[in-house]
């Protein structure tokens, strides 16, 4: 008489393809940032910048795809933070050091470290507050400090200007007699990099996409504007990136004013009502 065969147990579980898609995009963004460093080592500056910009685009969609597929996880959040630190902290710092700051090895390296550390601290602060629903700026729809991808884009502003005013760039009325090497000055680049690193870790309230709510009457115009910006990125990427940086910097005081109004409304709501007679 043979012994009865054991009943089949549950099959070993695994990650579904749906859950892996956002993490795969995050890994691709990490690879883009590292590839930007590789291009910088070989002196291909434009490709290095575009690699980091591509990492920013991938970083902007991985979280939205995770929410769309309902595939959020703690692992994905930690992977995203680590990828951001490499792609938007370490990669820009090394690219700018190899491009300009190595002419002043000591001061230039300290400027690169300041930016990289600022990005790491900004991401650490974001992770520490990710579960704090009552954080004042977060509850009002603002961010605290400049986001890491935006900080990387701002850090490259001297390189954008250097490219459009370089010897290979066509002469324009806007830049008739500008020496492109001015924007490669290590003192200028180092000071700018430290300033952007300060913006990363600052307590300044910054606008989010949720705060940009165009009126119903101009929504079609806003859609057309986004389409034109996308076309401009393909035809004139460097001028478009310069314009985006200028607009973002101009919006920083606007965010401070708007958040000041929110704070005043909160303070007025928290005041006790005057006693009735």
Automatic annotation (TrEMBL):
<feature type="transmembrane region" description="Helical">
    <location>
        <begin position="217"/>
        <end position="235"/>
    </location>
</feature>
<feature type="domain" description="CDP-alcohol phosphatidyltransferase C-terminal">
    <location>
        <begin position="219"/>
        <end position="253"/>
    </location>
</feature>
<dbReference type="Pfam" id="PF01066">
    <property type="entry name" value="CDP-OH_P_transf"/>
</dbReference>
<keyword id="KW-0812">Transmembrane</keyword>
<feature type="transmembrane region" description="Helical">
    <location>
        <begin position="183"/>
        <end position="205"/>
    </location>
</feature>
<dbReference type="InterPro" id="IPR000462">
    <property type="entry name" value="CDP-OH_P_trans"/>
</dbReference>
<keyword id="KW-0443">Lipid metabolism</keyword>
<dbReference type="GO" id="GO:0016780">
    <property type="term" value="F:phosphotransferase activity, for other substituted phosphate groups"/>
</dbReference>
<protein>
    <submittedName>
        <fullName>CDP-diacylglycerol--serine O-phosphatidyltransferase</fullName>
    </submittedName>
</protein>
<feature type="transmembrane region" description="Helical">
    <location>
        <begin position="140"/>
        <end position="163"/>
    </location>
</feature>
<dbReference type="Pfam" id="PF08009">
    <property type="entry name" value="CDP-OH_P_tran_2"/>
</dbReference>
<dbReference type="InterPro" id="IPR012616">
    <property type="entry name" value="CDP-OH_P_trans_C"/>
</dbReference>
<dbReference type="InterPro" id="IPR043130">
    <property type="entry name" value="CDP-OH_PTrfase_TM_dom"/>
</dbReference>
<keyword id="KW-0444">Lipid biosynthesis</keyword>
<keyword id="KW-0472">Membrane</keyword>
<keyword id="KW-0594">Phospholipid biosynthesis</keyword>
<dbReference type="InterPro" id="IPR048254">
    <property type="entry name" value="CDP_ALCOHOL_P_TRANSF_CS"/>
</dbReference>
<keyword id="KW-1208">Phospholipid metabolism</keyword>
<feature type="transmembrane region" description="Helical">
    <location>
        <begin position="107"/>
        <end position="128"/>
    </location>
</feature>
<dbReference type="GO" id="GO:0016020">
    <property type="term" value="C:membrane"/>
</dbReference>
<comment type="similarity">
    <text>Belongs to the CDP-alcohol phosphatidyltransferase class-I family.</text>
</comment>
<dbReference type="InterPro" id="IPR050324">
    <property type="entry name" value="CDP-alcohol_PTase-I"/>
</dbReference>
<keyword id="KW-0808">Transferase</keyword>
<dbReference type="GO" id="GO:0008654">
    <property type="term" value="P:phospholipid biosynthetic process"/>
</dbReference>
<keyword id="KW-1133">Transmembrane helix</keyword>
<feature type="transmembrane region" description="Helical">
    <location>
        <begin position="241"/>
        <end position="259"/>
    </location>
</feature>
<feature type="transmembrane region" description="Helical">
    <location>
        <begin position="20"/>
        <end position="41"/>
    </location>
</feature>
């Amino acid at each position: 008489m043979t012994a009865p065969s054991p009943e089949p147990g549950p099959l070993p579980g695994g990650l579904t393809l749906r859950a892996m898609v956002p993490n795969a995009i995050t890994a691709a963004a990490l690879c883009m940032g590292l590839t930007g460093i590789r291009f910088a080592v070989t002196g291909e500056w434009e490709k290095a910048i575009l690699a980091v910009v591509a990492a920013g685009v991938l970083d902007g969609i991985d979280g939205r795809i995770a929410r769309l597929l309902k595939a959020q996880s703690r692992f994905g959040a930690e992977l995203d933070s680590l990828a951001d630190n490499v792609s938007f902290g370490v990669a820009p710092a090394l690219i700018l050091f190899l491009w300009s700051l190595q002419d002043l090895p000591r001061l230039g390296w300290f400027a690169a470290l300041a930016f990289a550390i600022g990005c790491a601290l900004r991401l650490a602060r974001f992770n520490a507050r990710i579960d704090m629903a009552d954080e004042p700026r977060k509850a009002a729809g603002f961010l605290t400090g400049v986001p890491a991808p935006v900080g990387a884009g701002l850090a490259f502003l001297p390189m954008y200007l250097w490219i459009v005013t370089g010897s290979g760039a066509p002469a324009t009325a806007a830049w008739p007699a500008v020496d492109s090497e001015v924007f490669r000055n290590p003192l200028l680049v180092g000071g700018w990099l430290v300033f952007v690193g300060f913006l990363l870790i600052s307590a300044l309230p910054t606008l989010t996409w949720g705060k940009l709510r165009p009126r119903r009457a101009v929504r079609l115009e806003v859609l057309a504007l986004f389409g034109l910006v996308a076309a401009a990125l393909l035809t004139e990427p460097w001028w478009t990136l310069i314009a985006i940086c200028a607009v973002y910097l101009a919006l920083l005081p606007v965010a401070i004013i708007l958040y000041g109004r929110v704070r005043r409304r909160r303070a007025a709501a928290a005041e006790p009502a005057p006693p009735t007679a």
